[in-house]
Structures are given as C-alpha cells and as structure tokens.
Design brief:
Number of strands: 16
Main location: cytoplasm
CATH superfamily of the largest domain: P-loop containing nucleotide triphosphate hydrolases
Oligomer: single chain
Strand content: 5-15%
GO biological process, one term: phosphorelay signal transduction system
Protein name: DNA-binding transcriptional regulator NtrC
InterPro entries: AAA+_ATPase, AAA_lid_NorR, CheY-like_superfamily, Homeodomain-like_sf, HTH_Fis, P-loop_NTPase, Sig_transdc_resp-reg_receiver, Sigma_54_int
CATH class of the largest domain: Alpha Beta
Helix content: 40-55%
Pfam families: AAA_lid_14, HTH_8, Response_reg, Sigma54_activat
Largest sheet: 5 strands, parallel
CATH topology of the largest domain: Rossmann fold
C-alpha cells in the first residue's frame, strides 16, 4: 500500500460539526496538526494516500459506522491507533470497539484535557513502536514486506482476530452510563479476547454475577456453559462434591457418578461467588486445580482435566482476610490476576432513573400490566437515597411499586415509608448529584406495605412543590389571565418556559447539546430545532 504517515497529525471523524470544531481547536493548541472528516468514505479515500499518527472517530454516523471504519483501518493500516468516541455509552458499544481493535473508548461528554492526553498517549505509543520496529528490522530487500505483501491474507487474519461485533452478544442485564460504569464496560471490552482469571469485588447487590455473565457472553467461551455457584450457600460437607463431583459408591448414598460444577462448566466459565466464604480445606483443593489444571472426583483416583475459565467474586476484603489467616495468600494471588471493582449505586446516582425505568418495565411485564412512571418528586427521593442494598434493592423497590401503587404515576407518597425524608432523622433530601443518607428500607428484603394514611397525606403535602417553582408559574399565569384583553397565552408562556429550561440545560452542560438533550429527555434533532425556533444563542 502506498502512502506515508503524517507525523503529529490527528484525524477527527464525526458527523457533528461542533465536536469536530472543539476537538480540532484543543488538539491544535496541544501542537498537533488536525484534519477533520464528516463521513467514513472520506476517511477511507484519504487513507489510500496517507495516514495520521492517531485517528479519532465517532461510533454512530450516517452511512458507515465508526466500528466499520475501525475494521477497515485494521486491514489497511494495522499500526494506526484508533480512539472511538460515542454518546451511546453502553456495554455493547465498548465491547464492539475493543473487539474491533480500538486503542481506547471515549464516552461523550468527555473532558477535553483528558481527550487530548489520550491522543498524546496514543501518538507516543505509535512513535515508540515505530522506533522499535525500525531498530529490529533486518536489512535487505524483504525487510518489512510481511506487513503488506498479501493484503487479502492480512484481511482474513484481521477478520479472524476481530470477530464481527454483536455476532454472539446477549443481554447480561447491565445498564448505566455513569463514569464508574464506563470503567466496567471498558474492562469487559478489553477482557473479551482474554482468558485471564478475573476477581470481581464490590458490595452486595452491585451486580457481580451480571458482570460475570457479561464477561462470559463476550468471550470466546460464549457458546459453552456458564455455571455459577455461591460458596456461602453450600454446606461445608457438600462443597467438595458440588465442585468436583463424586464417583459411584464414594460415600453412603452415592448411587451414581455425579459430575461437579467444574465438569458442568467444561469449556466455559465457572463463576465462584462469595469466594471469601470458602473453607480452608477447599481453598487448598481449588488452588491445586488452578495450578495443575486437573482435579479428582470424590472417591476417584483418575485425574479429570479442567478446561474452564474461573471468575471469582466477593464482597469481603480478601487482603484483610489473608492478613487474618482466613484466606490463603497463594490462592488470592492466583485469583487476583485481573481485579474489577463494581461501584455501589451511591457512586452512580445518574443511573438511577435509567435503572428504575428498566426495573419498572420488567416487573410490569412479568405481571402483564402497564409500567408505572416515576413522578419528579419520587425520582428525587430515589436519587438521594443511600441504597445500602445497591441495584438489587432498587429492583426490589420497583417490584414493590408495581404491585402496591394504584396510580399510573408514582409520587413521593407512594414510596415505601422508610424511604420518605419525613420518616428519618436525616430528613433533608439532598440534590440529585449527591448521595444522601436518609432512613433506609431493609437492604436485602422487600419494603413493607404502608398502612398509615396520615403519613401518605403528609408526604403529598411535602412533595407538592419542593422547589417553589410551581408557585411562581401559577402567579405568572394569573397575572397574565387577569388581563381581559389576553388571548392565546398558552403558546408564548410555554415558549418562555422551554427557553428558560433549555438555556439552563445548556449552561449546566457547558454548551454540549447532546448531553443537554439527554438530561431534558429530548432527541438531539428535537433540541436543535427548539434552539432554532426559540432563538436561543
């Protein structure tokens, strides 16, 4: 392939002019040359004659997507680092990007300084790799020919290395766009092509099994079994048989051969939940399996090959348990190859509306009823709650609301009594961006049924107008309506309210229209039209 690399040049691909403009200015200030493109076909044409030091591309654009561009780049310019940007920051996007060979995955909205630093890191790595290749290249005519001597063969190799994203993807139930969850998605994406042992840590209810399933579903073992076992739920005297199986006649009652969880997960993934509760003698046996790659059934004398990937999880501090002599140090290091911490719900408050909507729809579907909708006052309480039981507790609350709430729209008074700010010592509800400590329902159970009508009435009074803005609107409307000459007031008043709200959203997001649209619950095109129609600068 002909063409040369433009040293220090960055190509930015995005159908949004404002994103191209902002990135170009920031990168130019950092000393890069910048070339921008609005469509994938323009980039492919340019790659035929030259290439940048780094390529930054959006993932969703009209026509070909950023992922399709990434596959083309991997075939044509395999050394070119590609950074994928996306406003649709979900698990599938992250996994697709890394499976296709992305250098990094950058969710929108992003911090410009961090974006520039990421480009600098990619460019530096590219330059160091080029210097290393040059020093190692043998002299002679054939030097370097392997990279481009057989384009068709190279394309086939790339297609094998990077399987088509989405071909085996199934929903593992992971939701969220908070930065803490983006780190989880990024890790799952990077681990998609790895077979390394993973240790998941985090509080109870944070979704460790769901992450384990996602790791399995996005791995090369996806077509093989996923087998989960909770160490805390298995009686000590049955644990060995549960894990490794037993031969016929191994003990009283063993009438037939039984395959344990390691054999049931053959070729797939074995998820060992609550590994910190494993007894000492079983820790020794597990360590031997991980070290030697085989095990013996109870009562057996023939080794059984272990061909599973192990993912372990715990809510406990394993380092502390090692220091206390309760967990083997060597087993800890065997399991702690890659550690992935799952954030508590209090660290991802911005995900609560999305999660609540999902759980309300899910519980409604199971009962065959219409999904409930959360009113603003109820959502404010949910976002300010501590959630000691994390996502699992939120799911329980949504199931309770589906059954116990009579109205279609859930108000603050419909929430479990223990969640209402008026019921606890920490009565003040903090802003949505904070994680408040208010009286909590039982973290592991279903909230009790409210029976005190006076409490519900009190909740209604407190939630009627928490910020006072309704009162202002009513006063303004009355002033306008008192004029006997008033006509057609609804349209101008509605426009005034929309203008104020949109201007506030743009100010809060630093002018980022995509993020402002998301917070307002509008499509980007709808927001752009309203900005134009309302004359907002």
């Amino acid at each position: 392939m002909t063409g040369v690399m433009a040293a220090g040049e960055v190509w930015v691909v995005d159908d949004d002019h404002s994103i191209r403009w902002v990135l170009e200015r920031a990168l130019v200030r950092a000393g890069f040359g910048v070339r921008t493109f609005a469509q994938v076909d323009e980039v492919l044409a340019a790659l035929a004659v030259s290439e940048p030091a780094v390529l930054v591309s959006d993932i969703r654009m009209p026509g070909a997507s950023g992922i399709e561009l990434l596959y083309q780049v991997r075939q044509r310019r395999p050394a070119l680092p590609v950074i994928i940007m996306t406003a649709y920051s979900d698990l599938d996007s992250a996994v697709s990007a890394f499976q296709a060979g992305a250098f990094e995955y950058l969710p929108k909205p992003f911090d410009l300084m961090q974006a520039v630093a990421l480009v600098q890191r990619a460019a530096q790595g590219r330059a160091e790799a080029a210097r290393g290749a040059a020093s190692a290249r043998p002299s002679g005519r054939g030097a370097g020919a392997g990279a481009h001597s057989d384009p068709e063969r190279g394309a086939k190799a790339q297609a094998t290395q990077f399987p088509q994203a989405g071909a085996r993807m199934s929903d593992a139930g992971l939701l969220g766009q908070a930065p803490a969850m983006q780190a989880v998605y990024r890790a799952i994406g990077r681990l998609a092509r790895s077979d390394a042992t993973v240790l998941l840590t985090g509080q109870s209810g944070t979704g460790k099994e769901r992450v384990a399933r996602a790791l399995h579903q996005h791995s090369v073992r996806a077509e093989r079994p996923f087998v989960a076992i909770n160490m805390a739920a298995i009686p000590r005297d049955l644990m060995e048989s549960e894990l490794f199986g037993h031969e016929r006649g191994a003990f009283t009652g063993a009438q037939t051969l039984r395959r344990g969880r390691f054999e049931q997960a053959e070729g797939g993934t074995l998820f060992l939940d609550e590994i910190g509760d494993m007894p000492a003698e079983m820790q020794t046996r597990l360590l031997r399996v991980l070290s030697e790659g085989h095990f013996y059934r109870v009562g057996g004398n023939q080794p059984v090959k272990s061909r599973v990937r192990v993912i372990a999880a715990t809510h406990q501090d394993l380092e502390a348990r090692v220091a206390q002599g309760l967990f083997r140090d060597d087993l800890f290091h065997r399991l702690n190859v890659i550690r992935l911490r799952l954030p508590p719900l209090a660290e991802r408050v911005e995900d609560i509306p999305l999660l609540a909507e999902h759980f309300l729809a899910e519980s409604a579907a199971s009962l065959g009823v219409e999904p409930k909708q959360l009113g603003a006052d109820a959502l404010r309480v949910l976002c300010a709650f501590d959630w000691p039981g994390n996502v699992r507790q939120l799911e329980n609350v949504c199931q309770w609301l589906t059954v116990m709430t009579a109205a279609h729209v859930v108000t603050m008074a419909d929430l479990p009594p223990e969640m209402l700010p008026s019921r606890g010592a920490a009565a003040a509800t903090r802003p949505v961006t904070e994680a408040a400590s208010v009286a909590a329902p039982q973290a592991s159970g279903t909230p009790p049924v409210p029976t005190d009508a006076a409490d519900q009435e009190e909740g209604h009074r407190q939630s009627a107008d928490p910020e006072g803005w309704c009162e202002v609107l009513v006063k303004l409307a009355r002033q306008q309506l008192e004029d006997p000459q008033a006509r057609d007031l609804l349209t101008p008043l509605q426009a005034s309210f929309e203008r104020t709200l949109i201007e506030a959203a743009l100010e809060a997001t630093g002018g980022h229209r995509g993020e402002a649209a998301r917070r307002l619950g509008l499509g980007r095109n709808t927001l752009a039209r309203k900005i134009r129609d309302l004359g907002i600068d």
